[in-house]
Design a protein that fits this description.
The complex is a heterodimer of chains A (331) and B (312). Chain A has 331 residues and is α+β, with helices and mostly antiparallel strands. Chain A has 10 helices and 12 strands. Chain A has helices spanning 2-11, 19-42, 109-115, 138-143, 148-164, 169-175, 177-195, 216-285, 287-302, 325-330, and strands at 43-46, 51-56, 59-64, 67-70, 77-82, 88-92, 95-98, 104-106, 116-118, 124-135, 199-210, 308-312. In chain A, strands 6, 9, 10 and 11 form a 4-stranded antiparallel sheet that branches. Chain A is rod-shaped, with a radius of gyration of 57 Å. Chain B has 10 helices and 10 strands. Chain B has helices at 2-23, 99-105, 109-129, 133-137, 148-153, 155-158, 166-180, 200-270, 274-289, 306-309, and strands spanning 24-27, 31-37, 40-46, 50-53, 59-65, 69-72, 76-79, 85-96, 186-198, 295-299. Chain B is rod-shaped and about 200 Å long. Classes of the chains: A alpha+beta (331), B alpha+beta (312). Chains A and B meet through strand 9, helix 5, helix 6, helix 8 and helix 9 of A and strand 6, helix 4, strand 9, helix 8 and helix 9 of B.
């Protein structure tokens, strides 16, 4: 029945018999379509990290947190989603091309210009940094400032340069890095508050901070010379440590040796003296005999050892030149 | 008969609808509106956001941004007072504070931007040319943290003190520019120096200077290394001599004392009878000095041989 109705309906307006029925159907479909459009336009979802800002005829009326919400459709209420919980990041002096385990970076002429800056001692440093921030106040972020993100970029550049401009190149590159980043972060935050930009600065971290490329070798030379200095000092100390303790040991040895000598000398003396005294004590009882005995004993001991003995009469002492003493000595 | 009437009514209703729609306009949070009637501004700016009504058809709504807008100047090459050529890049924040005057004087943002360009650039030039470079770079007379290397270069004494500083110079630019911008309905909030860079030629010289400074540091370190190691070697020599000589002295003292004691002991003993000592000691030396190589020539008047000649 219904397929029949339809064909007649499409055929033309001449046949009006089933018309009333068709109008109801059409009307129903129409209402349904309108209803779907209205509902689709009034339901919206806010993701966990977002916040929805609702404008009614351009006027800010409310914000909505995460979840399912309704608004007046047909463009009367308009929704803007702002990722308030998301940590946003900006890079200065480089750009991440492919984040991942091995993140790839690249520098562009524009990013190089961001990084090069004057230090307080009128030198030049190349400072790369990142800033992590959140949109704290969506209302301010959207309605107080146009293009808050690029304004924020300018603020970053101005603030970091101001702080770096009050530090020496050595501080910027080495000792002052963390302090400078901290100062810049605080100043950036207060500037954000002043500008009512609705941004909260979470981190400002210095990445590579270097002297400019043409100057780098000279900076490396300083490091090398420092290493060299330390090496030389270490070598000298190691030489010192090699020699001095040994000398101390040897000194000790000399002293101990001397002490040994002393003991030996004294003991020998005592021994000799005692021996002499002992002998002398007996000698005194019979000096003549003892003297002779000692003499003869010595002679007895000495003479057999000798190679040749020449005995001369006391009156023949002039025979001495005739002896072939040279030959004797040679044998 | 009926049909044209329906069509006519339809057209009238449609036109009326358009007119009603045209009477309504929306001011958003970011906008402000000036109503003009045949091009002539009617009343002040409408700034409160929401739905508003105007006379349809003959009145027109002109929208202007209400937010803080940015202005980013081109980098300018400017000589400082001490004749150093630098590139300077500023940014400013501005807004349409009086849309009516703004509308009358510059009509739109493009016109305003170019006026802000002229004014801020001009004031920047004036300000920069009045100050030394150091005044533009630094914002305080903060003392640098003196590292070992800084101490070598003695930077603190080279860098002059500032009197004005970067922040105040930016403030001067802002104040001067702010005197002019209200003439076309613009309020400037802030001018900041974004970038300062040396002009290429100057930069090259600065790099050369930096290189020379570092080389000075490096050679200082090298000679310090040489000096320190020589000092250590010297100390080593000194220690060595000290240790050895002290040991020698001590050893000699000990030996001397022992010799003295021994001498005393010998003297005490041998003094009992020096002659007997001489006798026994002489015999002892005979024993020690005469060996198989000795040829002895004895005469018969010696004590030993006196019986050899005659028994008496």
């Amino acid at each position: 029945m219904s397929p029949l109705d339809r064909t007649i309906n499409i055929g033309g307006e001449k046949i009006k018999i089933p018309g009333s029925l068709n109008r109801n159907v059409l009307g129903g479909i129409g209402i349904l379509v309108v209803a779907i459009i209205l509902i689709a336009g009034s339901i919206f979802q806010i993701e966990p990290e977002e916040m929805g800002v609702i404008l009614r005829f351009g006027k800010f009326v409310r914000t909505e947190g995460p979840g399912l919400h309704f608004k007046i459709p047909l463009g009367i209420e308009k929704l803007t989603k702002v990722p308030v919980q998301r940590q946003l990041k900006m890079e200065f002096g480089f750009r991440t091309t492919a984040p991942g385990i091995r993140t790839q970076y690249r520098t562009t002429p524009e990013s190089v210009k961001e990084a090069i800056m004057l230090t307080g001692d009128l030198n030049v440093a190349v400072v790369e940094w990142i800033v992590q921030y959140k949109i704290k106040d969506p209302y301010k972020y959207l309605f107080k400032v146009r293009d808050a993100a690029s304004t924020f970029r300018y603020m970053n550049e101005a603030v970091v340069r101001r702080v770096v401009g009050d530090n020496s190149v050595d501080e910027v590159i080495t000792v002052g890095r963390a302090r400078i980043a901290m100062e810049a972060k605080e100043e950036l935050q207060s500037l954000c508050d002043l500008y009512e930009i609705g941004i909260e600065v979470n981190q400002l971290i210095f990445q590579d901070v270097n002297p400019p490329d043409p100057v780098k070798p000279a900076f490396n030379e300083v490091n090398e010379s420092l290493q060299e200095k330390e090496r030389k000092i270490n070598e000298a100390w190691s030489e010192y440590n090699q020699v001095v303790p040994r000398a101390e040991g040897e000194a000790e040895q000399t002293i101990r040796g001397a002490e040994g000598y002393a003991m030996e000398r004294v003991n020998n003396a005592k021994g000799d003296a005692n021996r002499f005294m002992a002998v002398y004590k007996e000698y005194r009882r019979a000096p003549e005999v003892t003297r002779k005995r000692l003499y003869l004993e010595a002679v007895q001991e000495i003479l057999p050892k000798m190679k040749s003995k020449i005995i001369l009469d006391e009156r023949e002492s002039n025979v001495l030149p005739l002896l072939n003493l040279g030959e004797e000595a040679q044998k | 008969m009926k049909r044209p009437i329906i069509v006519l009514i339809g057209i009238v209703v449609f036109v009326l609808f358009l007119i009603v729609i045209d009477a309504l306009y929306i001011v958003s949070e970011t906008n402000q509106v000036i109503i003009t009637q045949f091009g002539e501004p009617m009343g002040g700016a409408v700034t409160s956001p929401g739905l508003h009504i105007k006379v349809p058809v003959i009145q027109k709504a002109n929208y202007f941004d209400k937010r803080w807008l940015e202005w980013d100047g081109d980098a300018n090459q400017i000589p400082t007072k001490d004749k150093k050529y630098i590139w300077i890049d500023t940014y400013a924040r501005w807004r349409i504070s009086d849309p009516l005057i703004f509308f009358q004087r510059v009509r739109d943002e493009r016109g305003a931007q170019s006026r802000v360009d002229d004014i801020v650039d001009g004031e920047t030039r004036n300000a920069i040319a009045n100050f030394d470079l150091i005044e533009i770079v630094r914002s305080s007379n903060r003392e640098f943290e003196v590292t070992e290397e800084m101490a070598i270069l003695d930077v603190a004494s080279i860098i002059p003190k500032i009197e004005t500083g970067r922040n105040k110079i930016a403030q001067i630019i802002l104040n001067k520019a702010s005197e002019i911008t209200p003439e076309f309905g613009v309020e400037l909030m802030d001018v900041k120096i974004k970038r300062i860079n040396y002009v290429d030629e100057v930069q090259r010289k600065v790099f050369d200077r930096m290189i020379a400074e570092r080389q000075r540091i490096a050679s200082k370190y090298r000679s310090e290394g040489d000096g320190k190691s020589a000092e250590i070697r010297g100390q080593k020599e000194r220690e060595l001599k000290k240790i050895q000589s002290e040991a020698y002295r001590k050893a000699q003292e000990v030996k001397g004392k022992a010799d003295a004691e021994a001498t005393f002991i010998y003297a005490q003993a041998y003094n009992l009878d020096p002659d007997f000592y001489a006798f026994t000691k002489t015999l002892e030396t005979y024993r020690a000095t005469m060996d198989t190589n000795t040829t002895m020539v004895l005469t018969t008047d010696s004590d030993y041989l006196k019986y050899f000649k005659k028994v008496k």
